Amino acid sequence: MNHKCILHIVTSVDGFIADGNGNSDFSFAAIKADPHFKSFYNSVSSVVMGRKTYDRIKANSANLFKDKDVYVITHYLRQKEDNVTFVHENIMGLVQNLKKQEKGHVWLLGGAEITNILLKEKQIDEMILTQAPFLLGQGTRLFKDDNPTEKLIFEEVRTFADYIQLHYRLK
Questions:
Q1: Which of 63, 88, 168, 169 has the largest count of CB atoms under 10 Å?
Q2: What are phi and psi of 169, to 5 degrees?
Q3: Ramachandran angles phi, psi of 140, nearest 5°
Q4: In this structure, how many other beta carbons lie within 10 angstroms of the beta carbon of residue 101?
Q5: 3-class DSSP state of 29
């Protein structure tokens, strides 16, 4: 059975995943408020993220997804840390192999560079986008201007606390 690569991420209303200083603390509050997050988390076996995202999360949590296989995409070769593997080449091959494993889905946590590469290569199967009630005006935009036109298939919308969550499937 092939599993899915699911982008599950929090953005500001104007589409930023971090402010101009790289701060994305608003996303931690959204995840804590999400009553469906635990179910999603239990459905994944692997977490893929960029190095900047990894550094931000590691600064906020000593227990970085201890029960998951974590893959950090980086330009710099680093030694494996516990359950964290640093990958600096063949991102497509990594994601394709993870999707073929029998364990569970792949959570694409971020960041923007990795998301946009995988989007162009049609490796993202679903998107769960949670909008936080903020206008940041600047920072790290989730989607870049040069992405292909993509028709999304609407799955559902949820609201909780001050958040709106949109779930899409990609063709």
A1: 168
A2: -110, 145
A3: -95, 110
A4: 15
A5: helix
Phi, psi (rounded to 5 degrees) for 54: -60, -50
% pLDDT > 90, the chain: 70
Query: How crowded is residue 100: how many other Cβ atoms within 10 Å of its Cβ?
Result: 10
d(CA 24, CA 12): 10
145 CB-near residues (< 8 Å, 6+ apart): none
CA 101 – CA 21 distance, rounded (Å):
37
pTM above 0.85?
yes
Classify burial at 15, counting beta carbons within 10 Å of its beta carbon; exposed 0-12, middle 13-18, buried 19 or more.
middle
Q: What is the pLDDT of residues 92-128, one digit of tens each?
A: 999 999 999 878 999 999 889 999 999 999 999 999 9
Distance CA 136, CA 127 (A): 21
Q: How far apart are CA 47 and CA 121, in angstroms?
A: 18
Residue with tokens 């995988």: 118
